[in-house]
Amino acid sequence: MATRQQIRARIKQLIAGFFTSSFDYRPSQLFQEELPCSSVYFENGETSRDHDDNPDTEARLAVEITASQSGNIDAFLDGLGNQVEAAIRADNTLSGLVDLIERTGFQYDRDPESFDGTLTLFFNVIYNDED
User: Fold this and answer.
1) Average pLDDT of each block of 10 consecutive residues along the chain (131 residues)?
2) Range of the domain at 91
3) What is 6-24 written as a DSSP string?
4) How many domains does the chain have?
5) What is the CATH number of the domain that holds 57?
6) If 0-12 CB within 10 Å is exposed, 13-18 middle and 19+ buried, where does residue 16 land?
7) Are 46 and 57 in contact (CB under 8 A)?
8) What is the DSSP letter of 115?
9) Cβ(117)–Cβ(67) below 8 Å
């Protein structure tokens, strides 16, 4: 069984080496000196209980990668995203915290007035919920 906090912290630990800053939440403000950075947070989830009152949860988790690059921002974000996905695929149970975590989608967001861009990777997480 795991808590959402434990899951976010484990993913942050797995990917922190790829970034200047890593957060196990979505900060309201980022500073240029923190980039590239990652933010790990849950978007939503659904819990069901079986006959033994075991809470099984299926949730959507986001890993948001923010960077600044004067050249091809998409390629730079893709490189970081590939590292993140490979690290999570290599430990797709997060050391036993979850039953499974797998990427289900992605989204880009580029700031047309700066060199900043964001790639958000979405993951489906299945686990026994302690929250």
Assistant:
1) 93 98 96 97 86 81 96 95 98 95 96 91 93 73
2) 4-128
3) HHHHHHHHHHGGGSSEEES
4) 1
5) 3.30.70.1700
6) middle
7) yes
8) S
9) yes
